[in-house]
Amino acid sequence: MEEKLKLDPIDQRIIEAVKRNGRLTKQALAEAVGLSATPAWARLKRLEAEGIITGYHARVSRIEQAAAVKVLVEVTLASHRHADFKRFEAAIGEITEIVSCWSVGGGVDYFLTVETADIDSYQRLIDRLLTMEIGIQRYFTYIVTRTVKDRPD
Questions:
Q1: 0.70 exceeded by the pTM?
Q2: Angstrom distance (rounded) from CA 117 to CA 122
Q3: 56-69 burial code (b ≥16 CB/10 A, e <16)
Q4: In this model, does residue 139 exceed pLDDT 70?
Q5: Do 142 and 96 touch, CB atoms closer than 8 A?
Q6: Parallel, antiparallel or unpaired: strands 98-103 and 136-143
Q7: How many helices (H) and strands (E) does the chain have?
Q8: How confident is the model at residue 62 (pLDDT cuts 50, 70, 90)?
Q9: Secondary structure (DSSP) of 6-28
Q10: Whole-number mean pLDDT of the chain?
């Protein structure tokens, strides 16, 4: 069995610091976590190598992008065999307008976040999904009217 990497308080501070600002310099990271630059940077590189820190991303203002509609979608599959879930997930993974997908327990199987240029584009996407024969029994659409909190992780 794979041993889980133990994170001490300094590792936790490094993680929190790069979550707030992934572009920290060596010196700024060191100051944020209370170490000198070389050990702080070495710990950061270890966290990356161990797969604890998996990447850095830019958050781009929606104002700067083309007008987009964000839609949350509940999806229930018609059948619940392992192959049905795999087929659905493989298809969803290839569709760029679907920006996130969560498998959930309870009354539905998946929650999707979809971003399209407009409602008409969203409906064309749904029509395409329904004709793909990926097992969708039913879906419910929720149009996002305002973002209250949006954290990337």
A1: no
A2: 8
A3: eeeeeeeeeeeeee
A4: yes
A5: no
A6: unpaired
A7: 5, 4
A8: low
A9: P--HHHHHHHHHHHH-TT--HHH
A10: 88
Burial (Cβ within 10 Å: 0-12, 13-18, ≥19) of residue 16: exposed
Map residue 113 onto helix, strand or coil: strand
Cβ-in-10-Å burial (0-12, 13-18, 19+) of 40 comes to: buried
| Three-state SS annotation for 50-96 | CCCCCCCCCCCCHHHCCCCEEEEEEEEECCCCHHHHHHHHHHHHCCC
Which phi and psi (to 5°) does residue 78 adopt?
-75, -35
The amino acid at 22? G
Torsion of CA 65, 67, 71, 77, to 10 degrees: -80
Q: How far is CA 8 from CA 5, 18, 37, 104, 116, in A?
A: 10, 16, 18, 31, 42
Three-state DSSP class for 150? coil
The answer to whether the CB of 89 falls within 8 A of the CB of 44 is no
Residue 29's identity, in one-letter code, is: L
**How many CA atoms within 13 Å lie on the side-chain side of 61?**
2
pLDDT for the residue numbered 21: 86
